[in-house]
């Protein structure tokens, strides 16, 4: 199977059925008037083989019999299940009437069937093309017919009943396993369904787990986490040593160790899980989604599971089809086309920015991995990250008395502030990332074998029998190659432990902290030591003229160069400047510039009271002209920009100490990057980012997929292909009354 990128998930939104079942959305018998027989009624039928394109002489005539063999009936049960999963939200949250909602859901179910059937014809046609490198010879009507017959014969009696009720399951399984060769798309869809059901049961089970409390954080505070924390890799699913899906739904009627890589909640027992599962079944029963005599002790013994499985598999086939349409569109992204796009944008920006520099300043303020500034009208612009070591509440109050004292000159206020600054003691602010609730606790114990960074304090702390804690274990394991499930955190080094003592009180069920208190000098030692651990060099010197002769009487202004307390530089392991990393490689993981930013970012999350720079693309924009920043910060940031990438300076303000790090500099006028076709697949390079942005551009793959699917719907959603039996679900449309 080809690698399917996250950005390529572009199925038409109207066709996307999200399984979001929860105890609340199940309702308490929302649909109570329908019997089992009533729920089994056919409320709609879709068969695009009735279209002229599938008749004799038509383009898809050879596939008509296979399309017609698929049971494309929409049952009333399907419509009700869809409502409970998704439609109920439209009524409760968006103010839709029941009539509007059920009509919308019916439209979606019809549209989904049309696209699934058309996708079958699409793959049959590609399979008939011997020159098709991916699907040629894989799909055929004869192979499909044989596959369905063989799979049907292999079903045991218990499963055969469900597959007779949902014959589309084997059809979908065939196309999602590429003729039986590769089952990744099928297994991924099954995992998606089972993980969502497990999440539903987890939510319900919480009420029954003993000693469960409402405390999510012992500190009562919150702290922003890096983007991507806990995010699963797109299309991930767990497999065993043989490559088979290793995951199942834990109902309490089975054992936890039989559920593969599903992880139960802390405190879960077979009893609490069974109670949660009974609530799940009760909600289904209350809405007539359980049939008499079903084996409810086994999730796969109830028909409702196969209703949802069919929905998941249909959506999976639509996603697969959309991906392949995207590939067709992306084939148009030739070297000539992409370079023409780049050169056109470069020329447009040059004309715009040369004539209006304000436009350039606005543009760099919104730069991202999909919004590029290719041209700089002059040097001196750049980006900085900012760590603020803040005044304490008491110190801020004292400073306020100084600033409000009309008898003090500004120079005197600055000197008094300097005395307060010398007494600032910063602490690690990540205590909200510890939680008494294991499910929301980001902290984990780091062992000596982890070889994580250890400062003098953590070494002595461990010697005293205390534990060292890091954060985001799943993401860090991904970074080390030990965990395929979670995304890596970008620009976050991840090896800096909580700087203090953290202990958990089992009796009170809360965390207690004794943080290390860092002066600005101690912090700089800590920062430079951490850079050394990361394989880089960081060193600087104090400003001998700090806070001396700060007022220039001749010029009648303050000399802000005297406000800089410290200035240093991060360089490579060989002492070479980080500026040697080209602009185009800024986001390439493993470069020294990337590592340097990652280290600083992590320390910013740990210590900074300025959260405005968290999870930004490159930090704060700095112009060489007048800015809105406070004067001390403005001067220091502009001076640092002039020294280039890797420079860090320390200056004061009324907020506390600022540690400013230069992450990116427009160091000369002219073209910033340059596009290299040969680097379009090198992740992190500018050429990669620019190329990928064109793939998701409105004129490219995603809109092409949507356009094709909308065209199909317009062509086949006709009376010859679609029949609706509105009288059979009229009672649902009348629920508003």
Question: Please, could you describe this protein's structure?
Answer:
The protein is of the alpha+beta class and 737 residues long. Strand 14 and strand 15 form a beta hairpin. The N terminus is likely disordered. The longest helix has 30 residues. The radius of gyration is 31 Å and the shape is globular. The two termini are 51 Å apart. A 6-stranded antiparallel β-sheet has the order 9-12-14-15-4-13. A 3-stranded antiparallel β-sheet has the order 2-1-17. It has 23 helices and 17 strands.
Number of strands: 17
How much is the average pLDDT? Answer: 88
Distance between the termini: 51 Å
| Secondary-structure class | alpha+beta
How would a crystallographer describe the biggest sheet?
A: 6 strands, antiparallel
> How much helix, percentage-wise, in residues?
40-55%
Give a short overview.
With 737 residues, the protein is α+β, with helices and mostly antiparallel strands.
Entry keywords:
11% strand; disordered N terminus; alpha+beta; 6-stranded antiparallel beta sheet; 23 helices; 3-stranded antiparallel beta sheet; 737 residues
Fold topology:
Elements: H1 23-26, H2 36-39, E1 42-46, H3 64-69, E2 73-75, H4 76-94, H5 98-127, H6 141-154, H7 157-165, H8 168-176, H9 184-205, H10 270-286, H11 303-330, H12 335-355, H13 357-364, E3 375-376, E4 381-390, H14 393-403, H15 410-421, E5 443-445, H16 456-463, E6 469-471, H17 473-479, E7 500-505, E8 510-515, H18 520-533, E9 537-542, E10 551-552, E11 557-558, E12 566-571, H19 592-607, E13 620-622, H20 631-643, E14 647-653, E15 656-666, E16 670-671, H21 686-695, H22 701-716, E17 722-724, H23 730-733
Antiparallel strand pairs: 1-2, 1-17, 3-16, 4-13, 4-15, 5-6, 7-8, 9-12, 10-11, 12-14, 14-15
């Amino acid at each position: 199977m080809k690698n399917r990128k996250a950005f390529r998930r572009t199925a038409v939104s109207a066709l996307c059925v999200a399984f979001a079942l929860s105890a609340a959305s199940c309702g308490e018998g929302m649909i109570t008037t329908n019997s089992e027989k009533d729920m089994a009624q056919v409320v709609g039928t879709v068969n695009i083989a009735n279209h002229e394109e599938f008749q004799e002489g038509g383009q898809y005539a050879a596939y008509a019999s296979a399309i017609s063999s698929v049971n494309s009936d929409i049952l009333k049960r399907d419509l009700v299940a869809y409502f409970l999963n998704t439609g109920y939200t439209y009524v409760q949250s968006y103010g839709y009437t029941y009539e509007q909602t059920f009509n919308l859901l019916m439209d979606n179910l019809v549209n989904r069937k049309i696209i699934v059937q058309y996708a079958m014809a699409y793959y049959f046609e590609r399979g008939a093309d011997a020159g098709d490198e991916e699907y040629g010879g894989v799909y055929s009507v004869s192979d499909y017919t044989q596959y369905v017959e063989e799979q049907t014969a292999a079903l045991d009696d218990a499963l055969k009943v469900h597959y007779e009720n949902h014959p589309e399951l084997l059809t979908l399984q065939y196309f999602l396993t590429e003729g039986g060769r590769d089952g990744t798309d099928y297994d991924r869809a099954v995992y998606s369904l089972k993980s969502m059901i497990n999440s539903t049961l987890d939510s319900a089970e919480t009420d029954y787990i003993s000693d469960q409390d409402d405390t999510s954080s012992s500190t009562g505070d919150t702290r922003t986490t890096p983007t991507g924390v806990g995010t699963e890799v797109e299309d991930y699913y767990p497999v065993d040593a043989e490559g088979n899906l290793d995951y199942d739904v834990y109902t309490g009627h089975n054992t936890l160790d039989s559920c593969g890589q599903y992880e139960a909640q802390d405190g879960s027992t077979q009893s609490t899980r069974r109670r949660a599962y009974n609530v799940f079944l009760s909600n289904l029963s209350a809405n007539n989604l359980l049939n008499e005599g079903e084996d409810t002790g086994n999730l796969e013994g109830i028909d409702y599971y196969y209703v949802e499985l069919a929905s998941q598999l249909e959506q999976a086939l639509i996603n697969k089809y959309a991906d392949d349409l995207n590939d067709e569109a992306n084939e148009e992204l030739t070297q000539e086309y992409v370079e023409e796009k780049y050169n056109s944008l470069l020329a447009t920006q040059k004309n715009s920015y040369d004539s209006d520099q304000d436009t350039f300043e606005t543009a760099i303020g919104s730069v991202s991995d999909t919004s590029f500034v290719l041209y700089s009208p002059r040097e001196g612009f750049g980006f900085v990250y900012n760590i603020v070591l803040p005044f304490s509440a008491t110190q801020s109050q004292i400073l306020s008395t100084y600033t409000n004292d009309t008898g003090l000159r500004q120079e005197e206020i600055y000197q008094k502030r300097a005395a307060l600054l010398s007494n600032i003691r910063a602490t690690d602010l990540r205590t909200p990332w510890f939680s008494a609730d294991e499910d929301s606790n980001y902290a984990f114990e780091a062992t000596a074998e982890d070889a994580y960074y250890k400062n003098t304090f953590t070494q002595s702390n461990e010697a005293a029998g205390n534990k060292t804690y890091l954060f985001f274990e799943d993401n860090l394991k991904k970074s080390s190659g030990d965990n395929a499930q979670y995304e890596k955190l970008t620009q976050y080094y991840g090896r800096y432990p909580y700087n203090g003592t953290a202990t958990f009180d089992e009796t009170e069920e809360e965390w207690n902290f004794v943080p290390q208190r860092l002066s600005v000098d101690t912090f700089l030692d800590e920062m430079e030591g951490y850079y050394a651990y990361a394989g880089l060099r960081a060193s600087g010197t104090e400003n001998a003229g700090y806070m001396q002769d700060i007022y220039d009487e001749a010029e009648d202004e303050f000399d802000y160069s005297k406000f800089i307390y410290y200035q240093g530089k991060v360089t490579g392991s060989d002492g070479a400047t980080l500026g040697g990393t080209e602009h185009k490689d800024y986001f390439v993981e493993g470069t020294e510039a990337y590592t340097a930013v990652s280290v600083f970012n992590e320390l910013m999350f740990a210590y900074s009271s300025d959260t405005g720079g968290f999870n930004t693309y490159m930090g704060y924009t700095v112009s060489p002209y007048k800015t809105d920043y406070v004067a001390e910060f403005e001067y220091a940031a502009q001076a640092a920009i002039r020294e280039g990438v890797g420079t860090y300076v320390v200056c004061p303000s009324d907020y506390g100490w600022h540690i400013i790090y230069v992450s990116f500099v427009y160091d000369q006028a002219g073209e910033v990057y340059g596009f290299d076709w040969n680097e379009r697949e090198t992740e992190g390079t500018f050429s990669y980012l620019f190329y990928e942005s064109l793939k998701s551009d409105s004129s490219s793959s995603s809109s092409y997929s949507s356009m094709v699917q909308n065209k199909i719907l317009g062509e086949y959603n006709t009376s010859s292909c679609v029949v609706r039996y509105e009288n059979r679900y009229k009672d649902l449309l009348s629920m508003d009354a």
